[in-house]
Amino acid sequence: MGNETVVVAETSGSIKVAVVVCLLRGQNVLLGRRRSSLGDSTFSLPSGHLEFGESFEECAARELKEESDLDIGKIQLLTVTNNLFLDEAKPSQYVAVFMRAVLADPRQEPQNIEPKFCDGWGWYEWDNLPKPLFWPLENVVQDGFNPFPT
């Protein structure tokens, strides 16, 4: 081996993994209006940070329970996206892991457990989503993403 130099670039941002849940009920998906420094007042799917040692499925179930008091089942991986938030005060990168799930009990209704993060939950038709969407969701929708089984 010769003389090799490895240069590691410094970054001022952070990298996080978010698990995003496409909770399906009929032809509808669950969306909430965000109250957050990222995407405030936009509509988003339920989501949250992956905790150390947690599977994507465990994270999806935990986040739905924490945010809406809903129990979910039939959790499946759909797609993964890479999202850079460069224009924020603290630049960050989110790897978003999109999961599909259904209600464990179809009679359950979402509760707004974390009102400081969400203005409330509602069921929306995939082909008639409310505006404005949180931009990572808007991007996958524009790219043809569809969480419903074909």
UniProtKB/TrEMBL annotation:
GO terms for molecular function: 8-oxo-7,8-dihydrodeoxyguanosine triphosphate pyrophosphatase activity. Gene3D superfamilies: Nucleoside Triphosphate Pyrophosphohydrolase. One of its GO terms (cellular component) is cytosol. It comes from the Eukaryota. CDD domains: NUDIX_MTH2_Nudt15. Its EC number is 3.6.1.-. Keywords: Hydrolase. Residues 14-147 form the Nudix hydrolase domain. InterPro entries: NUDIX_hydrolase-like_dom_sf, NUDIX_hydrolase_CS, NUDIX_hydrolase_dom. Signal peptide: none annotated. GO terms for biological process: dGTP catabolic process. PANTHER family: 8-OXO-DGTP DIPHOSPHATES NUDT15 (PTHR16099), NUCLEOTIDE TRIPHOSPHATE DIPHOSPHATASE NUDT15 (PTHR16099:SF5). This is Putative hydrolase. It comes from Rosa chinensis. The lineage of its organism: Eukaryota, Viridiplantae, Streptophyta, Embryophyta, Tracheophyta.
